Amino acid sequence: MRTTHALVQLALALMSAPQERHWGYELSKTSGVRSGAMYPRLRQMLDEGWLVDGWETSEEAGGRPARRYYRLTEDGQRELGALLRRAESDSRFSGLDLRMA
Amino acid sequence: MGEVLQDVVTCGIGTIMVTALLCGLFPRLVLRLLLLAYPSEDPRRPELLAELSRVPYRERLIWVADQIPTALMDGIPERVRARRVRRVAKPEDSDLAMEASLDSVSRPLSPIMYIKAHGTLTEDGKFVIPQGMIRVAAKDGGSTWIFPPPAFSPEWWALRPPHE
Question: Is the ipTM of this complex over 0.90?
Fold first, then answer.
């Protein structure tokens, strides 16, 4: 997967809570990645096996349509951790706060 | 005084109606139209509709506008690919597809999602594809998984005389 700003920002947001479930809109807000660019990335990560997805239950949804969530796999945590470490030494991402890596 | 009040009220109601239309009904309508670009079994259809309900009203118009390039660049090729695969395999006739294409909350499952949900991992770490799925060549040189047409189902093979 090509290392882009969007991917690094998304990796940061996902790795800030690696065990938690992540929701599309919240993830877009946390990472600062436009949703139009975020969903294709999430799909790629799903295909790579870095993420697993699921749907919230009707109780959680509280009468609204059930949302899809994403959770990092062990593979995903390892790969995104490595990606963030590489990004730390990459001058293209010097503007990003990569301390979480 | 009465006329001014009437103007304010009229203008206010008009503004409220336009705002409600632009931030409430219009984004949902546009999003539903955009989602038609994705194949009918694509989970992004219910996903984006559900996410829209969590987006604050004032952001909805921009949020929906943000989906336009992705739907066009991502959704349409996927839809074309899905149609091509369907034409080869006719999954709508497949018994397995009928049973498997809905998950426990009646959401449509693609063959890949079905494999992910029903595949098993052996002790030596090998992923075993669920029985009955077929791998076919795709036009782009790769390959893809499909639900089998009924003629390939195990029951069919069991019923069929060996010399036929």
Answer: no
